[in-house]
Amino acid sequence: TSSTTSSTTTTTTTTTPLKPLIAMSAHSALSAKIASQVTTTSVSSSSTTGSTPPTAAVPAFDAIWVSGFELSALHAVPDASIISPSTHLSTTRDIFHSQPLPLIADLDTGFGNAVNLAYALPRYEAAGTSAVVIEDKTFPKDSSLRPGGRQHLVPIPEFQAKIRAAKELSSMIVIARTEALIAAATAVDTTTTTNPNQNQNRGQSEALARALAYEEAGADAVLVHSKSSTPEEIISFCGAYTGNVPLVIVPTSYPRWSFEDVSRLTDNKVGLVICGNHAVRAAVAGMRRAFRRIADDRGIAGVQDEIASVEDIFQLQGDDELRELEKKYLP
Ligand code: SPV
Ligand code: MG
Fold this sequence. Notes:
Residues 1-18 are annotated as: Disordered. By secondary structure, the protein is an alpha/beta fold. The chain is built from twelve helices and twelve strands. The protein has helices at 29-36, 68-74, 85-98, 114-126, 156-169, 180-190, 196-216, 232-240, 259-265, 278-297, 310-317, 319-329, and strands at 2-5, 12-15, 21-26, 39-40, 58-59, 63-66, 103-106, 129-135, 173-178, 221-224, 247-249, 270-275. It has an eight-stranded parallel barrel, surrounded by nine helices. It has a two-stranded antiparallel ribbon with strand order 1-2. Bound molecules: sulfopyruvate and magnesium ion.
């Protein structure tokens, strides 16, 4: 598509940044349902037909990110392969049944090797998952965002086999995630002798090689994760990236750019932006504020207008549907 600037007498045609798809994180059916109900008045990035009137309310987010970080936080344990695969799977299923957006499940390393992943895949597909993300670290994983965490990459052929398993054993979209930039940055956290720039360059060449190898193995998209505090590392990676599949980013550590900036500054190479942990962080902040106020006030009246109404919770619980069922089936 192209747009025309009319501010000058000469007409300039520029490439319009495509809007990346946006996935919102969730850790529960409730958080996913709340995300799915957020609307925007502009045309959704998933709508390419142009037939939706610009003023129509459309979902603001294109998908739900079933985040391992959030699910771990929900259980108050570290994001380090500690919650059980069955908890992870049953939450995914609950989220699928609670709301209409497609699910992108964060399978971490695939719960072990390619064989463990092979068993997980049909179960996630049956639970309603549309896309899976698998990452190229050793099992058990450690949170990418943790300073000095264990960030060990598996050999490329080993991870390619996981990608092949995911493609051959399911019809879900397979997003291969490379942690090469995270591993390089974490090595800088933990050493004093390494030259950070040299490490970053090594990280980028490793990440680029892995991205191409993962595409070759059949990945539908490549998630390149960074914990740099500015977008430059990702912009530089995208500039050097020569693959054909779209890139995916999780800009938790480098939040200061809009979704439109992402498209513009990465030459439209990023097809999906994941808001990685914003549901659980918003929930924690909201609970802390309300609990503090109740403790300080020695009563609950002060939070009345700051927290969701009971009626709002009834709606989120699906009270209308319950009433319909009651009318239909109860004597
Ligand atoms: C998650 O949300 O679980 C992710 C993103 O994988 S991150 O926590 O940044 O690794
Ligand atoms: Mg994760």
